[in-house]
């Protein structure tokens, strides 16, 4: 009987260690996630699986223009380890809890950039952007709640969805603090 208890304990410890390692990797290194919504069409589609690198968040790295990022849209709330844990894809998979505050968007502006929209066209630092990835031209009736032109603050990024007419993004919440950029999309499955 003690041999069975030892083996059971060994299995339990191994499984627990595996779960802890997987959780650490998915919080700080890489994690799979699923696209929810249509705000990134035509680039990403609803229910599409993507792999994201968590290293930018881990090391406070500023993503580059055009990179697709996963953000916490609660920009006025300070993030904590509890947020990192509850917003984690592995934890969401296990609990079945999907948060509406995790968004997938594209980086348009970096600190100090001046973002403006004129005649349904996007401008960064006075230069009209050639955006071949957007679904359709921006519609003037889509509400912009931030004051334009908008200067991106220090340690923040300005993000937009590729489906501009059906996207909540920095036009409504303002710039996203760098600690709210949870990861950068590596590739889709």
UniProtKB/TrEMBL annotation:
Catalyzed reaction equations: Cleavage of hydrophobic, N-terminal signal or leader sequences from secreted and periplasmic proteins
Recorded topology in the membrane: Single-pass type II membrane protein
Primary location class: membrane
Segments passing through the bilayer: 12-30
InterPro entries (alphabetical): LexA/Signal_pep-like_sf, Pept_S26A_signal_pept_1, Pept_S26A_signal_pept_1_CS, Pept_S26A_signal_pept_1_Lys-AS, Pept_S26A_signal_pept_1_Ser-AS, Peptidase_S26
EC number, as in UniProt: 3.4.21.89
Residues the record marks as active site: 39, 105
A GO-annotated cellular component: plasma membrane
Recorded superkingdom: Bacteria
Localization per Swiss-Prot or TrEMBL: Cell membrane; Membrane
Domain Peptidase S26: 10-187
GO molecular function, one term: signal peptidase activity
Keywords per UniProt: Hydrolase, Membrane, Protease, Transmembrane, Transmembrane helix
UniProt-listed Gene3D superfamilies: Umud Fragment, subunit A
Family membership noted in the UniProt record: Belongs to the peptidase S26 family.
PANTHER family named in the record: CHLOROPLAST PROCESSING PEPTIDASE, SIGNAL PEPTIDASE I
Protein name in UniProt: Signal peptidase I
Organism of this sequence: Baia soyae
């Amino acid at each position: 009987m003690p041999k069975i208890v030892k083996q059971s304990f060994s299995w339990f410890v191994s499984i627990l260690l595996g779960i802890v390692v997987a959780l650490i990797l998915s919080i700080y290194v890489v994690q799979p996630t699923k696209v929810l919504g249509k705000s990134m069409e035509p680039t990403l589609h609803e229910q599409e699986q993507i792999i994201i690198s968590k290293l930018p968040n881990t090391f406070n790295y500023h993503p580059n223009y055009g990179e697709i990022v996963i953000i916490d849209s609660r920009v006025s709330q300070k993030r904590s380890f509890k947020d990192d844990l509850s917003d984690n894809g592995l934890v969401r998979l296990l609990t079945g809890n999907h948060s509406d505050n995790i968004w997938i968007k594209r980086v348009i502006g970096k600190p100090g950039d001046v973002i403006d929209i004129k005649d349904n066209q996007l401008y960064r630092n006075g230069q009209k952007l050639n955006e071949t990835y957007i679904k359709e031209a921006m519609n003037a009736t889509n509400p912009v709640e931030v004051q334009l032109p908008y200067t991106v603050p220090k340690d923040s990024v300005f993000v937009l969805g590729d489906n501009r007419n059906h996207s909540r993004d920095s036009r409504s919440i303002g710039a996203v603090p760098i600690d709210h950029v949870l990861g950068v999309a590596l590739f889709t499955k």
